[in-house]
Amino acid sequence: MINCLRLVTLFCVTLAAFGWSPSAAAQVPAAFDVASVKATTPGNDRSTSDLLPGGRFRATNRTVYWLARIAFGMSDVEITGGPSWLRTEGFDIDAKIDSADPMTPEKLKPLLLELLQDRFRLKFHMQKEERPVFVLVAAKSGPKLTAHVPSSLPPMADSMQAGTKTLTASGISTAALAGYLGRQMGRPVLDKTGIEGEFDLTLKWAPETTEDTSEASIYAALSQQLGLRVVPQKAPVSVVVIDSTERPSAN
User: Fold this and answer.
1) pLDDT value at residue 16
2) How far apart are CA 186 and CA 66, in angstroms?
3) Which pLDDT does position 19 carry in this prediction?
4) Fewer beta carbons within 10 angstroms: which end of the chain, N or C?
5) Rounded distance, CA 6 to CA 114, Å?
6) Which positions ≥6 away from 64 have C-beta within 8 Å?
7) Which tens digit of pLDDT belongs to each residue from 76-122?
8) What phi, psi does 208 have (nearest 5°)?
9) Residue 134: phi, psi to the nearest 5?
10) How far apart, in whole angstroms, are the C-alpha atoms of residue 182 and residue 188?
């Protein structure tokens, strides 16, 4: 019993280090009620992810590193260690909790972390390091954000097709947007906009590896489409070190 209490305490301390509070955790189930995890079929090079009504999360051709970035709310450079296949092998995930409400980014984090620990046997520790970061602020032209209107659209979905990356979000805060941008820009993004509330938005851009496209870079698109920009700085950040993991067993 004492050992169990110690494990629970350690788990809560770890979650708190990533910005999760006991009150927030109490509102989220400990794990997905149903979760399918399988290796992506060879030849499928399209990656998608969706937060859907009914407490559902669906991802196609996503790597463990990508899943860890979502679970920890961190950029790729803030997660180190582990075998090379974590960055190269894709997995398809279809998981849900018993809820009539849509899945949200904050609900997803602890659920996805539990999934990684259970199905991928993920073990990790964290440490502080000073790293280059971006600070998210309003552009000189001012923010171009549309106030949230309740709808049946998923809270957040992104896709990559024909050289264009598209983010569609419903009811997103600038803090949640900063977390998403950090994962795209490969550097932590700190929300310093001072903008409160929730917004509906669509952001389209061309990743740096894309050629022959008319889409703007993510930096230009951020300014042109949302009236926001990022400023480079240095700051101490938490870094996750993956100690070990395994490929998931068959469902």
Assistant:
1) 40
2) 11
3) 42
4) N
5) 18
6) 82, 85, 86, 87, 89, 91, 116, 120, 122, 245
7) 778 999 999 999 999 999 999 998 887 888 889 999 999 999 999 99
8) -60, -30
9) -115, 145
10) 5
Question: Hey, is 51 helix, strand or coil?
Answer: strand
Predicted confidence at residue 154, as pLDDT, reads 75
Distance CA 220, CA 206 (A): 10
Token pair recorded at residue 60? 């196609």
Q: How far apart are CA 126 and CA 239, in angstroms?
A: 5
What one-character DSSP code corresponds to residue 22? H
CA-closest candidate to residue 82, choices 120, 31, 108, 112? 120
Q: Give the amino acid at 80.
A: T
The token pair that represents 241 in the structure block: 């070190």
Q: Which of 122, 121, 112 is nearest to 57 (CA)?
A: 112
Q: 10-residue block means of pLDDT along the chain (251 residues)?
A: 36 40 48 94 86 90 93 85 94 92 85 96 94 94 94 81 89 92 89 96 85 80 97 91 90 64
Which phi-psi region, left, alpha or beta, contains residue 163 (left: φ > 0; alpha: ψ -120 to 50)? left
Which residue matches tokens 């998923």? 154
| CB 248, CB 115: distance < 8 Å | no
**Which residue do the tokens 């520790």 mark?**
125
